[in-house]
Structures are given as C-alpha cells and as structure tokens.
Amino acid sequence: MKIAYFINDYPRVSHSFIRREIQAIERCGIEVQRIALRGWNATLPDPQDRAERERTRYLLRTGVTGLMLPALVMLLRSPRRLLAALRLATQMAQESERGLLYHLVYVAEACRLVRWLRSCGARRVHAHFGTNSAEVVMLARALGGPPYSFTVHGPAEFLRPMKLDVKIERSSFVVAVSQFGRSQLYLRSRHEDWPRIKVVHCGLEREFYEGPAVAIPAAPRLVCVGRLSAAKGQLLLIEAAARLAARGLECELVLAGDGPMRAELEALIARHGLQRSVRITGWIGGAEVRTHLLASRALVLPSFAEGLPVVIMEAMALRRPVLATYIAGIPELVRPAKDGWLFPAGSVQELTRAMEECLTMPVESLQRLGASAYERVIGRHAIDREAARLAELFRGADGASRDQ
C-alpha cells in the first residue's frame, strides 16, 4: 500500500514525532511519500531531520507562480471539480482568520498536490494538524484526489476558527492524540461524525527508552524543553526561579529551545539577576535534548496551552519525573505523586511549590517516581504499537467520504 503524508512545514525541530510516525508506518509495510508546503531551507540540527528533507517534495519550492500551471490544467480538464473546490474554499473562508485570497491559494496548492498524489500512486493522503494542511487535502479530494485523513494535536486547532466540522465530515477518519483532544473534536463536529474520530497516541522509538537506566543526578537542575513562546509559560518559570533564589534555594534551570520570546525571557532573567543559574540553549537536536534530560532531576513544563507534549513522554521514558500543568491531555499520562507533579496553569505559587519539592526531595524518592513514569509511558506510547493502529486505519478505511 502506498500513501502520502502532507505537512505544512517538514521536517522541523519541534516535529520529530511526525518523522518517527512516518518511519514506523513504513515498518508496517506501507510506503509513504512525504509532501510539505515548506521546510526545504530550514536550519536542522538533527541529522535524521536532514535525511528526511532529502525524501520530501515541496509544493512551494518554486513559489506561488509554480501553482499556476496545475490550476490551469485543472480548469481545462476538470472545470466542474475546480468549481466545486472553489465553492468549498469560499465556505471555508467564512469566519476564518484569513481572507478569501488565502483559501483560493489553498485551491491552487491542492491542484498541484493532486497531480503529485496521482504520479506517486498514493491511495490516500494523511495530513498533520487540522489547520490549512487539512484544508488542502480536503480540497484535493474535491478535485478528484484520494480519500484523506488528518491528525489534530492542539492547542492551535482548538483556539482558532477553522471549520473543523467540515474537514471532519468529509474525511475518512480523524485522529486525536489524547482523549481530551477527541473531546474537543466532538465539541466541534456533528454527533453523527463522532465514530470517525479515533485516538492514536504519539509514540517513542524503542531505541529511545531501551538500555540501562541513568541515575538521577544530585545536582539541583531542572530542564524545560520547548519553543520559547507565550503558550509554554516560561516567563512564569523565571518568576518561580526568582522566588526560589530569594528563599536561598539553589536551582539550576535550563531552557532548551528557542523562539520568539527569547529576548523577553533574557531580559527577565537579567532583571532578577539569574544569569548564572538560568541558561537558554537555543535550538538543539534530539540527542542534545536527551543529554539535558538525563542531566536533570526532572522536566518542568509550565504550559498554558498544550495538546500532549512529546517531550513529557521522552522525559518519562528516560526515567525522569515531570512537573507539568493540569491541562489538556497531560493528566491522562502524568499521575500526581506517582510520575511527578501536576499544578494549575498560571499559578506561580503552585509551580514554585512543585519545584521546591522536587529540588529538596531525596534522589532515592525521585528514582521511584522516575521508575513509575517509565512503566507508565512505555505502556501507552510505544511508537510501533501506535503506528500499527494507525496503519490498520489506513488499510481499513473504505475511502468513503462526504463530498457533497
């Protein structure tokens, strides 16, 4: 069986879970063609991502002008289908953050995508994220392309108007990465479409969690891994670190990542005089993330909005406890007092308390939490088991979709 994956931006530092999923799907005997809108010139510290880039075709590599010929060919050969796609795009533009022009460009992208899907013999196409990538594969279906499905991660898909109900209604099936995610899709779709909404977890490679355990260090070090953005709550983390410093409690904090809030975070670190105890790494690859997790007592993630972060799975697979907010799909995986700490999002007091407990807890107690976290995550997030479930969905979907 041959399918295609369609992603907005691939490969990407923060999307290694998509790479792992594709590779695991291929181990299930399904050939996967990678197609993305952009990503051919991104800086990629991970050699696996660089290898993936060589296997990916990019719709926009020749610019928007490269979309004109496929659209013209579609107009000449299948004018009715093109008209149906244009009507659908107009419908999608209603209540959208983006104007009609963007959605018309999505139609042109879909015209080119259909040609590529036919040329590679893909029997279906799967998109990641319910944003414009899901709309493009839906429009491609309206243009005569293969059946489509898509995975919704959150939180962006849940926070912005994007007519998920229409995308779900016309799909073969839709994947949520957590029960919370499925509930949000239920909220945004018709009851009769609920059976097509499935839960398939993101997963970890066996090589990531097999091997001897690395002891938790005695050093008072915590690591926060993620894009430096408002949703991740790192500003609150700096405030908590300042409170611990004021109490005389030593805390080394590593912010592993980069992003639009770096300058603001650096300014707040300087304002509190934490330059010696708080460090920002910039973008790093998967191997370096692993090194930082192993060198820390725990992962701390004070997010305000999430889906179910893969880095939590990675920390637990390395036998590291997790300090995270009680939001979205996180409580489905992390159990308080068993695998780490959960605290209310936005509460600097509770975040500070959890960090203090972790930093002052005997290493032996942290080891027990880490061992529990390990058992928990490998029982729920092994990539080959989750990919096998997804492969069965690909094989079992009969291709029926609502195109009217």
Summarize this entry quickly.
The chain has 404 residues and is α/β, with parallel strands linked by helices.
The top-level CATH class of the largest domain is Alpha Beta
User: Strand sequence of the main sheet, in spatial order?
Assistant: 3-2-1-4-5-6-7
Tally of distinct domains: 2
* CATH homologous superfamily caption of the largest domain: Glycogen Phosphorylase B
Features:
elongated; 404 residues; 13 strands; six-stranded parallel sheet; alpha/beta; Rossmann fold; 2 domains; disordered C terminus; seven-stranded parallel sheet; 18 helices
Structure, explained:
With 404 residues, the protein is of the alpha/beta class. The chain folds into two domains: 2-203 and 383-396, 3-Layer(aba) Sandwich (Rossmann fold), CATH 3.40.50; 209-378, 3-Layer(aba) Sandwich (Rossmann fold), CATH 3.40.50.2000. The chain is 47% helix and 15% strand. The chain contains 18 helices and 13 strands. The protein has helices spanning 16-27, 47-54, 68-77, 79-93, 100-120, 132-142, 156-159, 164-170, 179-187, 206-209, 234-246, 262-271, 286-294, 310-317, 330-333, 348-360, 363-378, 383-396; strands at residues 2-9, 31-38, 56-58, 125-128, 148-152, 173-176, 197-199, 221-225, 252-256, 278-280, 298-301, 322-325, 340-343. The strands form two sheets. The chain has a seven-stranded parallel β-sheet, sandwiched between helices. Strand 11, helix 14 (310-317) and strand 12 form a beta-alpha-beta unit. Helix 11 (234-246) packs parallel to helix 12 (262-271). The longest helix has 21 residues, at 100-120. It is elongated and about 75 Å long. The two termini are 27 Å apart.
